[in-house]
Design goal:
Blueprint lengths: L1 H6 L2 H11 L3 H8 L7 H20 L12 H7 L8 H22 L9 H4 L6 H10 E2 L4 E2 L5 H31 L2 E9 L2 E7 L8 E6 L5 E6 L3 H31 L1 H27 L5 E3 L4 E6 L2 H7 L7 E5 L5 E5 L6 H16 L11 E3 L3 E5 L12 H15 L4 E5 L8 H18 L2 E6 L2 H9 L3 E9 L4 E8 L7 H7 L4 H11 L1 H84 L3 H25 L15 E5 L4 E5 L8 E6 L4 E5 L3 E6 L19 E3 L5 H17 L4 E5 L6 H12 L3 E6 L9 E6 L3
Parallel strand pairs: 7-11, 10-14, 10-15, 12-13, 13-14, 22-23
Antiparallel strand pairs: 1-2, 3-4, 4-6, 5-6, 8-9, 8-11, 15-16, 17-18, 17-21, 18-19, 19-20, 23-25, 24-25
Helix pairs in contact: 2-3, 2-11, 3-11, 4-11, 6-8, 6-11, 8-10, 9-10, 19-20, 21-22
């Protein structure tokens, strides 16, 4: 397995993983990582990584970094009676403190970590040891505290008194000696733990005392005056007692650490596991990876998988993803195509993603990818010539093929680069076919690369075997690196030779020598390649057209709903006004009758009543005029290019931009910038386009419309709703470019927005902002022209 690890460069993945670990134990686990054999173990490893990824991305970083390595300390502490130093005790306390913080962090998130919680819950609470060490030793200065014991406190009190006495006496002597000019420096110095004076060489007889040292130049002597000798002796004696008391305190702490040695060792192991999982989560986030589904069956389904090392080096946008299915409809895949087309990279991508998944690592592929448990992986990739073993490249190749033929079976993955190469093409091809037949019958999953045309035919004719290739641009003779199942690849040897300006006569002769059958096969592959590319282009255009039609249909539905709603509103308003007028009219008539009766039909009363009734009649007439539908019908069909017209079907307005076609339809460019074919008999001419009134909701002169949208602080669903309205209005306004501010943060908002932008019909392209535009916290969007 280690040779396969090196061949597929899984050792580089382990190195990246180890660099993301923060503890020695985590790095060791990363460097020793290998595929697991049991599905439950793999699922557990993937779930642990997923749970910690979610914590990091959507909550906060766990307090895993900065844990000291105490493995060496624990080895010494395992021996009863051993003495640990102050700094070693402090490291133990810091490790216990880290364990306590981590326990608290994950305990408050138990519902989010059902699998990871089984690891974090094994951390043992050793806070008693931490408290005792902290009580005795200052964790920041690593100095034993005065109150570590009553004896130490008393001794240090005596030391301070003795030092104060010595300093007072020696400072008294210094004032006299300074007047005589005997002092080299007017300070109290310390030599060998004793207070001394710095005296000039020529004044040494002026001071009675012990000489402790001489300066490098010889001009100064460090003399301990006899007057402070007793105090210095007292200080020295107290310092010895202080050292002995500190040793007693450290012995006591060492014994407490020894008593919980096993528990500390268990915590260190657990912390190492957590650090390893933390490194896996950080690698997953770095690669934008996902956990694949693990299957008991020998199957591989990779959706949009990217080569992890290329992704880490170049970024996801520059690495072309691949899709491959293996183990369901067929067990064997033969990848063909020209050199430098990406065949070997595809082979390594498949193998590396499989090893990563089986090792419990997330893979840079879509979440619905599936990897079956492979109990063995065989990989023969690259030139493996061995001078030490006197093996040629072909001999080494055969050695690998022999090992594969003898041992490869069901639930084994076989990867062979340039199968059958390095010898006579016909014989090498025959060996390759025989081996692939053998592997297919035994149920091994096999993926090989080749240049040999007979192998392409073998894949086409044999059940359980499938062709594959990487898309190659016949115009530029460069690979697009898009992996395709079911399609063989051409070598493009003659086309590349022509591009390299080899003489035409050479190329024509080569075509003759290769034979009509093979040349015809290569030609068929080239025709198929061109047909596929034309089909893709047509499909893309059809998808864009479909999006436009759907957008137009939605627009017309919205307008029809608006018109229907407005019609209902006007009807209700008219009914309310009519009802009010009717009430007023009845009231006016009743009032008129009452006045006529009361005044016994006086002429003035009759005239006044008649006026009030006439007023109500006028109101009714005004209302009838307002809602009248008796207007003459509008004339339709009389339109020509340049006319401004109303489409009676929707009520929308636009400019006619074409003559009627065979179906008697013209192209109408709506005020919203949308072009659509409309029957002539549904259009009413409203004058020339220069007379039209713009019905665009926004325009370039609309200074209230901003060119950027700030989505920070919003949830993804809320942001997409706001973003959709903003983009529609920007497109209708005729803008060519807008900016979206989503911030950097966890990246969740940005990840939610990007797929929406890919699907939006008004978006031509998008990119992250440059350093002067907001960097990765901003996405700049280029809009399509109406």
């Amino acid at each position: 397995m280690e040779s396969v690890v090196e061949t597929l460069e899984f050792d580089h993945i382990r190195r990246h993983l180890a660099e993301l670990a923060t503890m020695v134990q985590g790095r060791e686990k990363a460097e020793a990582l290998l595929p697991l054999k049991e599905k439950q173990c793999i699922d557990t490893a993937l779930d642990q990584t997923s749970e910690l990824c979610d914590i990091i991305k959507y909550d906060k970083e766990p307090p895993i970094e900065g844990i000291p390595d105490i493995s060496g300390i624990l080895k010494r502490a395992a021996v009863e009676g051993s003495l640990l130093k102050e700094e070693e005790c402090v490291k133990v306390a810091q490790c216990v403190l880290s364990s306590r913080k981590i326990t608290g962090f994950f305990k408050s998130r138990q519902e989010k970590i059902p699998t990871l919680g089984k690891v974090t819950n094994t951390l043992i609470d050793l806070s008693d040891v931490e408290r005792e060490i902290s009580r005795c030793i200052d964790l920041s200065t690593i100095a034993v505290r005065d109150n570590a014991s009553p004896e130490l406190s008393a001794i240090r009190h005596e030391i301070n008194r003795a030092r104060a006495s010595a300093r007072k006496k020696i400072e008294s002597m210094m004032s006299k000696l300074a007047q005589q000019g005997a002092l080299q420096e007017n300070v109290v110095a310390v030599r060998n733990g004793r207070h001394v004076l710095v005296i000039k060489e020529e004044y040494k007889r002026k001071v009675k005392g012990l000489i402790h040292d001489r300066s490098a130049s010889g001009s100064s002597l460090f003399i301990e005056p006899l007057g402070v000798l007793e105090d210095n002796n007292r200080i020295r004696d107290l310092e010895i007692r202080e050292k002995d008391e500190i040793e007693k305190i450290l012995y006591k702490l060492s014994y407490q650490i020894h008593a919980v040695h096993d528990e500390l060792g268990s915590n260190v192991e657990t912390l190492g596991i957590l650090d390893f999982i933390y490194a896996k989560a950080r690698l997953s986030i770095k690669m934008q990876a996902n956990p694949p589904e693990i299957s008991e069956n020998p199957v591989i389904h990779i959706a949009q998988g990217r080569h992890p090392l290329l992704l880490l080096r170049m970024g996801s946008k520059k690495v072309v993803p691949m899709d491959i299915n293996l183990g369901e409809q067929f067990n064997t895949v033969i990848i063909s195509g020209p050199n430098a087309g990406g065949k070997t990279v595809s082979l390594k991508t498949l193998g590396l993603l499989t090893i990563m998944a089986l090792s419990g690592l997330h893979i840079p592929a879509l979440p619905h990818s599936k990897i079956g448990i492979m109990t063995q992986i065989f990989a023969s990739i690259g030139d493996e010539q061995s001078l030490d073993q006197d093996l040629s490249t072909f001999s080494s190749h055969l050695t690998h093929l022999k090992n594969i033929a003898l041992h490869a079976d069901k639930q084994h993955l076989v990867l062979i680069d340039e199968i059958g190469s390095g010898t006579d093409p016909e014989e090498g091809t025959s060996l390759a076919i025989a081996l692939l037949e053998h592997l297919t019958q035994r149920g091994a999953l096999s993926v090989v690369t080749t240049h040999q045309s007979p192998l392409k035919a073998f894949a086409y004719q044999t059940e359980g075997v499938e062709n594959a290739s990487l898309e190659f641009d016949a115009q530029t003779l460069t690979s697009t690196f898009h992996f395709r199942m079911g399609i063989p690849g051409s070598s493009y040897a003659f086309e590349i030779a022509e591009r390299m300006h080899l003489p035409g006569s050479f190329i024509d002769r080569a075509r003759e020598l290769v034979g009509a059958t093979k040349d015809k096969l290569e030609g068929l592959i080239l025709d198929l390649e061109n047909t596929i590319q034309d089909y893709k282009k047509t499909t893309r255009e059809a998808e864009l057209r479909e999006k436009e039609y759907k957008e137009q249909l939605q627009l017309y539905k919205e307008r029809a709903e608006t018109l229907e709603s407005e019609k209902n509103r006007l009807k209700k308003q008219a009914a309310r006004e009519a009802e009010k007028i009717l009430e007023d009219s009845n009231s006016a008539i009743e009032q008129a009758i009452r006045e006529i009766r009361e005044t016994q039909a006086e002429r003035e009363a009759i005239r006044s009543a008649k006026q009030r009734i006439d007023q109500q009649k006028q109101k009714i007439a005004d209302l009838q005029e307002k809602v009248s539908t008796s207007e003459p019908p509008e004339q339709t069909g009389n339109v020509s290019p340049g006319d401004y017209a109303r489409w009676i079907k929707t009520g929308g307005f636009g400019t006619v931009v074409s003559e009627p076609d065979k179906k008697n339809q013209v192209m109408l460019q709506t005020d919203g910038g949308i072009k659509i074919h409309v029957p002539v008999n549904e259009l009413v001419r409203k004058g020339k386009s220069k007379q039209k009134k713009s019905r665009v909701r926004y325009n370039l002169q609309d200074t209230n419309f901003k060119h950027e949208l700030d989505l920070r602080g919003m949830r993804v669903e809320e942001a997409l709703d706001v973003l959709g309205k903003f983009l529609d209005e920007a497109v209708m306004s005729g803008l060519s470019q807008v900016s979206i501010i989503h911030g950097k943060g966890t990246g969740k908002l940005r990840e939610g927005i990007l797929p929406y932008l890919d699907e939006h019909p008004g978006v031509q392209s998008h990119r992250l902002g440059n350093w002067n535009e907001g960097d990765s916290g901003v996405t700049v969007i280029k809009l399509k022209k109406g």
